[in-house]
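sry for the spam today, last one i promise. C-alpha cells for design, 80 residues
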C-alpha cells in the first residue's frame, strides 16, 4: 500500500509553495517569504503492534497534531 503514493505526494508538497510561506515582522510591517527549510516531509510510521493496540495510530496522530511547531520569526509566537 505504501509503494505507490509517496512519490506523487512528495511532488504535490514540493509544488505547494504556500506550505513554505513564512512571515516576519519588520519595522516596515509584516513581510512574507518562501522558506525552503519549512518544506513538509512525509514520515512513514510502522506500527507492528497495531493488532494488540488498534488505537495507537490515532493517539500518535493526535499527539502530532497537538505538538506546536517551531516557527522562528513568527508574528504569532504564542499560537505556534
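last one done:
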Amino acid at each position: 500500500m505504501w509503494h505507490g503514493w509517496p512519490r506523487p505526494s512528495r511532488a504535490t508538497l514540493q509544488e505547494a509553495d504556500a506550505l513554505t510561506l513564512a512571515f516576519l515582522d519588520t519595522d516596515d510591517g509584516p513581510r512574507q517569504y518562501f522558506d525552503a527549510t519549512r518544506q513538509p516531509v512525509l514520515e512513514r510510521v510502522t506500527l507492528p503492534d497495531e493488532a494488540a493496540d488498534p488505537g495507537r495510530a490515532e493517539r500518535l496522530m493526535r499527539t502530532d497534531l497537538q505538538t506546536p511547531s517551531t516557527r522562528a520569526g513568527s508574528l504569532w509566537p504564542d499560537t505556534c
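The radius of gyration is 17 Å. ok im logging off now
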